[in-house]
Amino acid sequence: MGAYPTRRAIALMAIGAGPALVVALAAPQAWLAAAGWVLVAAALIVVDLALAVSPRALEVSVTAPKVMGVGRLGALGVEARFKTAAPRTLELAVAGDERLQVHPVRQGLTPDGAQIGATLTLKPHRRGEARLGGLWLRWGGPLGLIWRQRTETHDAPIAVTPDIEGVKEQALKLFSRDAPFGEKAQLDLGEGAEFHALKEFQTGMDQRAVDWKQSARHGKLVGREYRAERNHNVILALDCGRLMSAPVAGEPRIDRAINAALLLAFTSLKLGDRVGLFAFDSRPRVSSGVTAGASAFGLLQRLAASIDYSTEETNFTLALTQLGGQLKRRALVVVFTDFADATSAELMVENLSRLTRTHLVLFVVFRDEELEALVTAEPKVADDVSRAVIAQALARQRDGVLTRLRRMGVQIVDAPVAELGPALVNSYFDIKRRELV
Fold first, then answer.
1. Peptide bond before 28: cis, by omega within 30 degrees of 0?
2. What's the Cα-to-Cα distance from 325 to each of 276, 289, 405, rounded to whole Å?
3. Range of the domain at 346
4. 188-244 residue pLDDT tens
5. Dmax of the chain from CA atoms?
6. Where are the alpha helices (DSSP H) in 193-313?
7. Among 161, 182, 201, where does a domain finish?
């Protein structure tokens, strides 16, 4: 609670200060009369303070979500009620913290009788425990010379987690886009590599699926039915080092990578594969081992939420060597990382080459759209030409690293940020279809 003068009150004092000074200089014996303006202005401020609605007459309630996904908008509700007559207008200001952005930060409100209601937009941009920095409501007195203010705190933390809702929405789109309306869903039959059953050959079946030995035994054409092979190990290896904490399209790269990794985890678990999470920077930070079943996604979600933002350089040698030692059977290792240039990527390429001797590596990297924009931008000044030449050289180095990885047998996902998750899942489907694991 508090009270302080408005700009009108300060201007009123300032306007009277000049004439009072002139009077005091022209007639020193009348200096008390010269101060009369200041006293009158002070008296008006006191009167306005007495007439203004007291902050004690205001009841405020704040409604905020308990959990929010990174980058997903949420609503902050503010409701207030005056026990006495409400002022004509109010101003509301709300502050977030380093993890949470509030919009608008300040807005004017007009009471509906004694009630005031407002809805603000919350946008979290870093995982962790976010809190509102404070909430302020202020209103003026009838003369407009004084502000009365009520300050509220919202101590309940807001847990900022990976965008699970977005992951589930993308997953549902991927699984439903090819499903005709009204058709009964069935198991993944017909395109896998694992033998499922024999059935009578029907028009439209692949002739290569005919089992001639069983057809001779039964006296009719019999075909083999296959289903997607299951129980593959899928390891999600997340680089959470310094470069991955840098923002891309308004969010840290590691958060974008976590969302794509959880989308792939959801898809893999639904198709019967086993999924493990491994995060590292200068040393391994998270290692879940492989897990399967309905409860596995919740476990992976909690582990992904615990991955912190790091300022340390990534040690690929230590991390990938330890990961390779933990894997007892061939697996699909999905590596989420980023690199600045060919020199910094040298150790990464060397350690990935060792990993490819036993496992299939799927390398996920963010397409540098800012770099591509610099290359293709129309130059207007001399500096634009220099930027384009440097950007072209960096893009060429980047393409060289990806080409080396492809020659080693590494599968590459290089997609824009907005399309990273679907592109990753499509690569996973392609790997299963081609029986590469």
1. no
2. 14, 12, 21
3. 233-433
4. 444 445 545 667 777 766 667 777 777 778 778 877 766 555 688 999 999 999 999
5. 131
6. 212-218, 253-270, 296-305
7. 161
